Amino acid sequence: MIKEKGIVLESSKIHLVSDKIWKVSVFGPDNYRTALISHFLRTKNKKLRKPAIEFAVEILEGYFDEVISNKVAEEALQYLIRFDESVLFPKPANPKFTFIDLFAGIGGFRIAMQKNQGECVFSSEWDKMAQRTYYANFGEIPFGDITKVETKQWIPDNFDILCGGFPCQPFSIAGVSKKNSLGRKHGFEDEKQGNLFFHIAEILEKHRPKAFFLENVKNLVSHDKGNTFKIIRETLLDLGYSFHAKVLNGKSFVPQNRERTFMVGFDSNIFDYKETFEFPILPEPTKKVRDILESKVDAKYTLTDHLWKYLQDYSQKHKEKGNGFGFGLVDLNGTTRTMSARYYKDGSEILIPQKNKNPRRLSIRESARLQGYPDYFDVEAVSMNQGYKQFGNSVVVPLIEVIGEKIVDVLQTKIK
Ligand SMILES: C[S@@+](CC[C@H](N)C(=O)[O-])C[C@H]1O[C@@H](n2cnc3c(N)ncnc32)[C@H](O)[C@@H]1O
């Protein structure tokens, strides 16, 4: 029970309210009030205390007749957000550096950078389903749309590394050709998505972190005859950062062929263009698909006769035309194709053969393993289709970890 100046708020009542708030306003692109409260509770950043309490008062006043004092609001925060000290992926006990997690998805970068002893001090992801998974694992609700001032204003003044796998759609072959065929512009000319890189550039310019760590699709380098990549590179160099880029394949760590472009740079004012960053040399791939399979999976993952027939017919039609399209029945002793965010549609790019049965899709846990997530990662916060979408969009966690390690090595030369 919370008691002050005659106001009595039964904790049960607050729980009731919290349930309601939980369902209506906690997750989503415009959730900056609850995102801020959860950032305050998680990071204990003193600068967030005042606005967190003010937002809590605003939220609570919508549900109570009583006038809500700051003290009551502060105590109620704990209930409101169902704050719990124990989270699956806590920050390291003695962090060596800080980072921000942009376009956070479900936190692939965060797991890897926390393993490198980093503390996340800000996260942003506008998809409410991805926010749910993120919250289930890190106990923090990411802020929404990073293009908005309401979001960007809460980025702390100082942090060491800006991390982000900005959306690949405008740069991927699929995205480009679809947009071209619709007669629309693409890449940086695309108003809504293409400009996202410039929000990253703006944050770098304003906050001057020591380093950035970016990820994108493989064909970023060749997109628009190399123009897109040239603009990204020149923008970052103009900002006074060094620029290193390399395409690396996640198959060194997981049984999946997943090539991505990684970009890393350091503030030249601090490192005087003399840092000696190098991307890691990756180990020979050893993981096989069978290593990530569950011994028993739900029947829902097996393709229906209808879908299986459709995929076979579709593949046959393309073969006759001389095209290579088709489903990908995997070799259990090999690697899979790249898992995409569209895997939930029919799962045709990665199908697991089964004895005396139609093939099946990967289970959600197997999808998580295919991206290198540990088995204690909570995959239950969202539906199966959302789960496929989230893992299809994700990074290969151990690959991020080894690149991150190299970045931290360089940082260590300047962090006292
Ligand atoms: C390629 S995914 C990144 C996935 C992430 N690296 C992971 O490991 O899960 C890009 C993410 O950016 C998010 N996004 C796109 N536009 C955004 C915006 N304006 N503000 C915040 N997030 C955005 C998408 O919802 C998507 O989850």
SSE topology sketch:
Layout: E1 2-4, E2 7-9, H1 11-24, H2 32-43, H3 49-61, H4 70-80, E3 97-102, H5 108-115, E4 118-123, H6 128-138, H7 149-152, E5 161-165, H8 173-181, H9 196-207, E6 211-217, H10 227-238, E7 244-249, E8 259-266, H11 268-271, H12 289-292, H13 305-320, H14 343-346, E9 352-354, E10 357-360, H15 364-370, H16 384-392, H17 397-412
Parallel strand pairs: 3-4, 3-5, 5-6
Antiparallel strand pairs: 1-2, 6-8, 7-8, 9-10
Helix pairs in contact: 2-3, 3-4, 5-17
Low-pLDDT residue spans: 169-179, 186-194
Termini separation: 45 Å
What about the largest sheet?
6 strands, mixed
Name of the CATH first level of the largest domain: Alpha Beta
The CATH homologous superfamily of the largest domain is termed Vaccinia Virus protein VP39
Got a strand count? 10
Taken from the alpha-carbon principal axes, the silhouette is globular
Mean pLDDT: 86
Number of domains: 3
Structure description:
With 416 residues, this protein is of the alpha/beta class. Helices cover 40% and strands 12% of the residues. It folds into three domains: 2-80, no CATH class; 97-283 and 395-412, Vaccinia Virus protein VP39 (Rossmann fold), CATH 3.40.50.150; 289-392, DNA Methylase, subunit A, domain 2 (DNA Methylase, Chain A, domain 2), CATH 3.90.120. It is built from 17 helices and ten strands.
Main attributes of the structure:
416 residues, alpha/beta, Rossmann fold, DNA Methylase, Chain A, domain 2, 3 domains, 6-stranded mixed β-sheet, two-stranded antiparallel ribbon, 17 helices, 10 strands, 12% strand, globular, binds S-adenosylmethionine
